[in-house]
Amino acid sequence: MKLSKKIIFPLLLPVLGCCSFFMLPAPGWESKFVKVSKTGALEYMPDAQGNTIPDFSRVGYYFGDRPLPRIAVVKTISATGTDNDQQHIQAAIDEIAGQTPDADGFRGALLLKKGTYYIPDRIRITTSGIVLRGEAGTRLVATAKTQVSLIDVSGSGQAREVPGSRVKITDGYVPTGATSFHVADASGFRPGDAVILFRPGTQQWITDLQMDRIVTRPGTKQWRPGEYDLRYERTITKIAGNKVTVDNPVVMPLETKYGGGELYKYTFEGRIRQVGVEDLLCESTFDADTAENHAWDAVAFGKAEHCWVTGVTARYFGYSCVNLKRDARNISVLNSNCFEHKSIITGSRRYSFNNSGQLNLFMNCHATDGRHDYVTGAITCGPNVFVHCTAKRTHADIGPHHRWASGTLYDNIVTDGEINVQDRGNWGSGHGWAGVTQVVWNCTVKRAAIQSPWASGKNYCIGLTGEKYNGRLKDRPDAEWEGQNKPGVTPASLYQAQLAARKGK
């Protein structure tokens, strides 16, 4: 006998009520390092030296203060299905580059209509204000026989210090999380100035980190002064006497015993901005699963700022979906995927989403078959953020890869592999301590080794689901572990809570 909808619904009510009773969420808990007030503001609990977990919210396209724009199409092309596609795309980009930008700095979007485009070398964008966009079904196939980047976005030049602008930071200790400090003479600075916060890599610091006595094997290099100088890009927001306030926090302590810090103005003529890559399926041809002579990156950025990648899926590349190089800053990489790498499985391969720049955001990205899926390189300066990302069938670990990244948030990363922040010892050519102020927040892993270096700060592991293990080397100091395998950490996402708190939402 059929029951009417009127009968079925009342019958379900007791069942649903019973299920809801047994499915009540676990009670939430707060970290001792970050607390949420009744108004939604975040309170950061300092240690004895004043160090706090920093605010990571000012990363990505225009520091997260502007939504990604939707730029009007000014030119449309269709696929020919031949190697001539590259020439047609490049000619269209170059044509748009010759146009006068609008009041917001945009020249327009190039729309690639649905179809398959063959690219035997690479597509270059070297001018600001250009968007490369696809439709559903737009497919770029890299047919190169060398390790090129299919879409290569980069300006020119380099950061240059403004002569005579350098001053010494006079505070004996500037803690992690601080946004202000005193300088010897602030009279040459103004709010809005682009500045470098300079932290020298001194011999004493290297010795205290024990990075001048890495156990050697063929090719091991001990750390040396000068090679580990750190240059953080900041903007001055306020000056009061000789006290300078900057837009983004200090992400490792500045200590007189390790050379303190300095501040100077800089220029970067030739760096481009406001370039977008949107809604593309990118594939590389390959001869075998271990093929090496084919396209390496789907998208690479260098010498660019305030740009974005969204809706890009990469398949069969040897290195990455998106590779942000040293001079790429304030880039948002959103809703993108890196699937089915093709290469041998060893070093310098399968870095699905790689970041060597600063103030960058990776959010809602997914990877399979990678080695280091969400990863930073040597002396990577933060803040940088990876949030709400997944990795499956991993062949190595997620985290700072080598040689001292500072200020990275790994937030709600879910992987069937490992997240590690540790002394990597003589791996590679002597990776050593991978980083400091690395915050692993509400992540799910198979296992993790999160440790703190011998000097210059600490790392954090808050609300991790998964196994804790000793890592590569024994007897390294533990990071700040809290709430392992305890569900319900509040806020659930540190990045999103920090962004909301900063915007007063």
Observed structural traits:
single chain, 505 residues, mainly beta, Pectate Lyase C-like, Elongation Factor Tu (Ef-tu), domain 3, 2 domains, 10-stranded parallel beta sheet, 4 helices, 38% strand, globular, disordered N terminus, Pectate lyase superfamily protein domain-containing protein, Pectin_lyas_fold
Verbal overview:
The protein is mainly β. It has a 10-stranded parallel sheet with strand order 7-10-22-24-27-30-32-34-36-38. Strands 11, 12, 14, 15, 16, 17 and 19 form a 7-stranded antiparallel sheet that branches. The longest helix is centred in the N-terminal third of the chain and has 18 residues, at 5-22. The chain is globular, with a radius of gyration of 24 Å. Mean pLDDT is 94; it is low at 1-25.
**Count of alpha and pi helical runs:** 4
Coarse shape: globular
CATH architectural name of the largest domain? 3 Solenoid
The CATH class of the largest domain is identified as Mainly Beta
Low-confidence spans: pLDDT under 50, at least 5 residues? Answer: 1-25
Arithmetic mean of pLDDT: 94
Instruction: Report the sheet-strand fraction.
Output: 35-45%
Number of domains: 2
- CATH H-tier superfamily of the largest domain: Single-stranded right-handed beta-helix, Pectin lyase-like
The rounded Rg comes to 24 Å
Query: For the report, how would you describe the main beta sheet?
Result: 10 strands, parallel
CATH fold group of the largest domain: Pectate Lyase C-like
- Proportion of residues in helical segments: under 10%
Strand order of the largest sheet: 7-10-22-24-27-30-32-34-36-38
Rounded to the nearest angstrom, the distance between the terminal CA atoms is 53 Å
Secondary-structure-based class equals mainly beta
Total strands: the figure is: 40
InterPro entries: Pectin_lyas_fold, Pectin_lyase_fold/virulence
Organism: Chitinophaga alhagiae
Protein name: Pectate lyase superfamily protein domain-containing protein
